[in-house]
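Sample pair:
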Amino acid sequence: MLRKVKASVLDENFNPIHHRDWNLAAIGLPRVNPKKQRRPTLAAKEMTALLSKAEGQYLMICFFCIVTGLRVSGAVAIEIDKHIEPDCSIIYVRQPKGKNENRVKKHLKTESGCRDVDIHLNAAAILRNSIGDRRSGFLFHTANGTMFDPGNIARDSLDPILQKMGRDDAGTRFNIFAVSVKPSCNAATYGKS
C-alpha cells in the first residue's frame, strides 16, 4: 500500500516525484502463495450445474454474472436505459449498489470499477430476449420495480443451490462470478451514470 501511495505522487509531466527502488526481502514482505488463498470460483461444470438449478430471474442473474464476470451487487445496479447497448452487446458498469442500503450509489468505489463489458453474441441474444420490450428500469428488479437485494438473492436461490452442490462459500458467494478486468473509463467520465 505504501508503494502505491508514494508512486501516486506525480509532477506536472506525470513523472514520479518520489522514485524508490523497493527491496521487498529487506522489509520482510511475506510471499503470497495463490494456491493457499481463498479465491472461490466456479469450474465450468459447476457453472452449468448452478444454471440448471436456478429458476426465473435468479437464473438470469446467475447467467448474467457468469457471462459478464460481475458480482451480484454490481449486476443488480444495471439499468436498461443507461448501462446496456440496445443490442445488448456491451454492458457499461457505472454505478454500484449501496452497501447495506437498497439504492444505487452515485460514484464507484474505485476507478477500476468503471468499465465496459463486451457480451458474446449468443449471450447478448439471450439477454435481449430476457429484457423483451422493457426500455428502462433495473435489469433485474422486484415485483414493484425496485432493485433486487443481493441478500435476498443469496437466501432465496444462490445459497441453497451452492449447498446442494457441496460448496461452502458463505461470505464469498458473490465473488464466485467476479473476474479481474481493466478499467475503461477516463477521468472525464468517471463517476457519471
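Residues 42-177 form a domain with the hpI Integrase; Chain A fold (CATH 1.10.443.10).
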